[in-house]
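Help needed: design a sequence for this.
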C-alpha cells in the first residue's frame, strides 16, 4: 500500500521484510555495550564456594549495569532516530525511516512510545509486532499505531 506523504511524494509503507532485518541489526548493535557491561560481574570478588564477597558492591554493579543499559537503549532507539532523520543505524542500512502519520518528522515522544511498546511487539519472539505489520493497511506494529508513526522507504 502506498501512503502519500506531504512534502515527500509517494512513499511505500510495505517494508515489512526490511523492518525485520533492520530490527535484528539494531537489536545486536544496541545490545553490545549493555552485554559488555554485564561482564563486570565476572570481576566481582567471590568466595571459594562462588558466593559474592560483597553484596553491596554487587548491588552497585547491578544498578550501574541496568542504568547504563537503559541510557544506551534510550539513546539508540529514541534519541538517535529523533535526531537523525527518523533512522537508527539498521534503518539507514536497510533504507527505511520513521515519520509521523501526517508525513512529517517523528518527534522524541513518538520515538519513546515506539520504543516502550517494543516490549509488547516483541512478545512471542516478535510475532505480535510481525502479525500487526502484516495485517494493518499501513504495515504498522502496535508501537507505530500508539505513536502515530509510519515506517517508510527512505
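Sure. Designed sequence:
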Amino acid at each position: 500500500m502506498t501512503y502519500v506523504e506531504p512534502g515527500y511524494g509517494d512513499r511505500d509503507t510495505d517494508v515489512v521484510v526490511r523492518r525485520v532485518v533492520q530490527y535484528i541489526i539494531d537489536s545486536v548493535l544496541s545490545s553490545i555495550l549493555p552485554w559488555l557491561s554485564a561482564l563486570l560481574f565476572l570481576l566481582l570478588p567471590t568466595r571459594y564456594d562462588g558466593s559474592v564477597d560483597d553484596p553491596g558492591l554487587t548491588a552497585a554493579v547491578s544498578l550501574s549495569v541496568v542504568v547504563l543499559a537503559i541510557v544506551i537503549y534510550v539513546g539508540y532507539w529514541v534519541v538517535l532516530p529523533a535526531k537523525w532523520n527518523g533512522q537508527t543505524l539498521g534503518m539507514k542500512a536497510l533504507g527505511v525511516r520513521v515519520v509521523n502519520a501526517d508525513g512529517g518528522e517523528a518527534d522524541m515522544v513518538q520515538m519513546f512510545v515506539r520504543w516502550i511498546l517494543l516490549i509488547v511487539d516483541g512478545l512471542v519472539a516478535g510475532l505480535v509486532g510481525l502479525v500487526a505489520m502484516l495485517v494493518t493497511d499501513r504495515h504498522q506494529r502496535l508501537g507505530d499505531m500508539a505513536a502515530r508513526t509510519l515506517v517508510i522507504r527512505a
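The CA atoms of residues 73 and 90 lie 14 Å apart.
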